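Format is chain and fold; as here:
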Amino acid sequence: MDLAKTFTWEGRRIAWGRAGSGPAVVFCHGTPWSSWLWRPFAEALSGDFTVYLWDMPGYGRSSKDAGHAVDFGAQAQAFAALLDHWGLDRPHVVAHDYGGAVSLRTHLVHEVPYASLLLADVVAIPPAGSPFFRLVRQHPDVLAQVPPYIHEALVRAYIGNASHRGLHADDLAELVAPWLGAEGQPAFYRQIAAFDERYLEENEASLGRIDLPVTVVWGTEDTWIPVATGERLAAGIPGADLVRVPQAGHLIHLDAPVPLATTLRTWLTRVTAPPTNGTLVG
């Protein structure tokens, strides 16, 4: 699956791709990630679903213009506009990390209807952010000016820390690449500096209004956002299920790909199953 298509929204270029047929499933990535993390899962599901991948403005293959806001509010507006562009009616939404807050705000504030929502190790309610994340928020301008080789070392260490099992060299290189160079380095610090926990507070205050099937999936070894936060999130959403994945950190896609893929398939099979009329046969 390649992000060969683009959607222009308020001067931003949003890269996206689509594959398969069947009920619509939209994947939302987080920070400092891109849709690359979801690609193998989307490809595996494309035999039974129409799957959509996209990179948020400021991430991956989408534009990284310094003058464009990349906070939760702007990303939720972009997601709502993109869903409208696709003409989707009640898609199934799957989100990780920052994509959790974006998808929740799109639904709760912009009132975009979903058929279901799966939230995997998401940034959705306070508190959020690793120690390094908090350091960058305090000194974004200083760190944006460090020499490129120091910046690359910082980003590699930061991203590597998100995995419980450790990352293969090729995977680490793929995740680091968008944040290197004259465009990527300042964009990395800019998206962290834009973080505003007030959006998460608004999300938490509105969780009780969610009226759709929700599953929360969490790696038990997530050191960026501990499983206790996932438990609190699930408890705040009426009827939500919680799936704990052992031996998985924040990068659950790479730490536990088989359990995550199984959970996704089981979830989507259940929420897309035709309703029964309750009639007994026999």
In short: DSSP finds twelve helices and eight strands in the chain.
